[in-house]
Specification:
Blueprint (H helix, E strand, L loop, with lengths): L5 H18 L24 E2 H16 L5 H12 L14 E2 L12 E2 H14 L2 H15 E2 L4 E2 L2 E2 L10 E2 H18 L3 H20 L7 E2 L23 E2 H18 L7 H13 L9 E2 L10 E2 H18 L2 H18 L10 E2 L17 H8 L9 H6 L7
Antiparallel strand pairs: 1-2, 3-6, 4-5, 7-8, 9-10, 11-12
Helix pairs in contact: 1-12, 2-3, 2-4, 3-4, 4-5, 4-6, 6-7, 6-8, 7-8, 7-9, 8-9, 8-10, 9-10, 10-11, 10-12
Amino acid sequence: MLLTDPAHHAELAAECERVLRFAAAARDPAGGFGHLDSRGRRDPGRPVELWLTCRMTHVFAIGRLLGLPGADELVRHGVTALTGPLRDAEHGGWYAAVRPADGAEPADGAKQAYGHAFVVLAASSAGDPALLAEALDVVERRFWREDDGLVVDDWDRTWSTLDPYRGVNANMHTVEAFLAAADVTGDPVWRRRALRITERVVHGFAREAGWLLPEHYTADWRPVRDHNREEPAHPFRPYGVTVGHLLEWSRLALELRAALGEAAPDWLLPDAVALFDTAVASWADGFPYTVDFDGTPVVRQRMHWVVAEALGAAARLWQVTGDPSYDGWYARVWAYAQRHLVDREHGSWRHELDPANRPAATVWAGKPDAYHVVQATLIPRLPVAPTLVTALARGVGPGA
């Protein structure tokens, strides 16, 4: 089995280090982390975005625990951006994007649940209790809705206007963030809220839709199935069903189940299996970015992050069930990644391929993201719970 092969674990460790070394070039000397092109050159014309700076801070916190030279300084650099230019000292919360060298108005002053979830994750991973407490306070006061058991999405800069759009992407990353925060703070309220979100989205919305999860909703949580029909390949809110999110929810459901222990509801495992099965039904030597609500591919471009999440979900399902079919899926998807995505010449993974598995850039240009791949290299080597950084910090260690 590939998932138990020591040689493969060594291969994963090498790949993790290779991707992290590539990502280090994203450091913006003025603050935060920028976008990297396909050859690993930072684009100075683009603003520093909250979600990306947080993700980079998180993965370099992983690198620090793995002993990667220079990772500690990169974590500090990320935290400095989150306590400096990205933080709105006047109104609270964090801007969606800034140009640190300008020192003026933010490039995007919106307050987004998606980005704030990553502030919680980055603060948890970086080991900054003050930043984590502030981030959790903002998420609880501004985004969490107790009656819904979900978070809302977008506010304006002054927290005076709430966009009526609701979505499950921000809620998915809030689950991830809450699990990390629960491990760091020891407060079980964050796991309970992660369960409430997962119950609404997975055991509710996804199950009711035959596991083809709608992504977009009205303010009272009614699905909007034609959202972005005219822009189906939107990088964050595409039309239809996002295949990679089915895989990501599958993995998170299993990690939540492990974190809850005996208190975990019985539906978490079968729901995770159903989401995985629905996602891999779209496999055709690669995953499409999106499918319609009958499973027909819509955007046939292939995204690297979907492959990374397939690896993570398959590994977790094998760890939980011992079913060798998941090792089979893992091996199939890993071989695909090695054949088509891993860029030995220029570094990291190609972020997008066309339907014939040739490099493309219609949805994602360049290689700005290390988060999905780094986590995919760790998940097969770490237990299902606690969360990755906590496991490493406790000395569990890859391969345990």
